[in-house]
Amino acid sequence: MSSLSETMAVEETSRISDWHRVDVDSVLSDLDSSLAGLEPAAVERRRESFGTNELQESAGTSKLSLIWGQVSSVMVLILIGAAVLSLLLGKYLEAGAIGAIVVLFTALGFYQEYRAEQAIAALRRMAVPSARVTRSGRMTSVPVGELVPGDVVHLDAGTVVPADLRLVEVASLRIEEATLTGESEPIDKQTDPVDHDDLALGDRVCMAYSGTQVAAGRGQGVVVATGMHTELGRIARLLQNVESEPTPLQQRLDRVGKQLALLGVAVAAAVVVMGAISGESASDLVLTAISVAVAVIPEGLPAVVTFTLAIGSQRMLRRQALIRKLPAVETLGSVTVICSDKTGTLTQNRMTVTVLDVAGQQVRLDDDAAASVAGAPSSAMVTLIAGLLCNDGASEVDASGTRRWLGDPTETALLQAAADTGLDVEALRNLVPRVDERPFDSTRKRMSTVHEQLDGTIGQLTELPQDVRVSFVKGAVDGLLQHTSAVWDNGIAVEFDNRWHARITAGNDALAAAGMRVLGVAFRPLRSAEDDPESELILLGLVGIIDPPRPEVRDAVAVCRRAGIRPVMITGDHPLTALAIAKDLGITDSERVLVGADIDHLDDDAFAAAAREVSVFARVSPEHKLRIVGELQRQHQVVAMTGDGVNDAPALKRADIGVAMGITGTDVSKEAADMVLRDDNFATIVASVEEGRVIYDNLRRFVRFAVAGNIGKMIVMVAWPLPFLLATGTLEDATALLPLQLLWLNLMTDGVLGLSMGLEPAEK
Question: pTM for this structure?
Fold first, then answer.
């Protein structure tokens, strides 16, 4: 293929978004590549065509534009006009005092706006410095910025995916995609295409996306998109295109400012007309107009608002909410809808074994797991022991003596469950050492380990065959049942017939419908070297694992509802899991869940109705989150949005108040947010809303007080000259207060007295 036609063909195919639907050979053919990689000349041509593999920052808002946005408000323009007129009249002290107020106005606003421009910089920091690729048949390491479509990239555990890849080879490859999809567990990857319409990112299991991390295994992928054409780049474009809306406080203050300005102009015009009729000099008339302008503006307002918001932010910090942008403090008090991510906010972000289903009998593990299994069938403990032996998880003890589990979340959940029931994990592993294994892979969907023969010294395992090696197997239930010949029931292996198949399948379906990940656990005595450790299995039981709700969130959701705030769950996780958690927490009592693919097919009217009625959205993309938040705002709701991943950043920025997670949150989400939760807890948001309502009430008191006081000063400015005009026919020396005196009065009354109003405690 000629260089020109090659570039055109690759450029056209690299914009395909459905790479997951195409088989490996077609992908390589479309990209004019092979497993031997690209030749140097092809790399150079493609780099010239596609540019570097980097996120491009938009021009953004210039500092001058930010400053203009602050000084163009009505109240500030009136003060600037008053300062200019004072200079022309030689009133330098008045001009300096008014100018100082204007500078304070502008500096505070500029600082807040400038900080809001930093989210894209954090997104760019997610890039990795280098990647291992195959070029011209040889493996080499190249800077990530030099990758081009068609490059063959190697992935290993712990590496960050450097570009969007179509996987062409996998070996037990699992990728952590929570930052992009919200999925709480690493995803098992494959090379076979997934040919379905409207497939969410989390279900495109033959793809690897830029910015995600390899949790286990290894693989190879061919680059199908770089830079701004990746999913990460798509989010960057969304983030750049989201306009920050003024907060409810800023909108109300702007409205008050315009009303006061109109009133001040009318009064000043009336005073000037009276002065002109009486033959006053132009300089006196201008001085009077300046005095009225100064009287109408509540100069203490910025100071009081800033002070009140700062004090409120300190109180919120003590309740684990870090405020990044001061106006967000007041916005919290106006919130009517809280859109929350699931993983880590509503849940504990820790996979936990909650149910054991053995021989058709369910055992629920509550806070006292040891008591939960005390009266359970003995096979419950055998199932837990099998789960800890057929397990690659590990542990470490930190300086404080606390044990931490390391490894895949599902495997560490099994280890924690065993420990919670009183089993000594390390001692059991030493007593029954592993002598062989078959690692988990996405094709078999199971893992098996072979252990030394049991010798009767382990009490919980005495009912299993002794003096022979034993294999323990765990994996997906449907795959395990295909190799099961018996079920372990009260210490006896009974035939696996249709009745047992129906019971186990029903148990599996019930746990899955409750949003759990279900693992089957089985064993086989190996009486000869030829026995296959993964066939003729004896099923011990099923294990239900879920990321459980935080215990305090249920009460927080109830408080929200009593306060007139509607909670909504928006997650990239599976709809069954999302609905189960939402119903458990009281977010919804409906069975309706709206998934991203459904949202794409709704017109504006149907979507508006769905946004009003549906409280659980699952398998959603960043665009879906933006659309949901935008629709709620169009319905005149004040929306708080929580999130921790890169995929949440655009919606965090669009919402009236964005709330990022401090523990699990990415830098991107924190930069886009107005508030950061230091404990990643939904209950903290509710506590912050309570503080915000107190602050909103206090600010409303002050504005009423300031406006009433300034109207009084204007009445004085208008009424004072009337007796002079009636008595002498002139307004000479009839100015009640000079501009500097009014400025001083405003700062003293609005400022000092207003500050005390900002510290008012909450009403009962």
Answer: 0.70
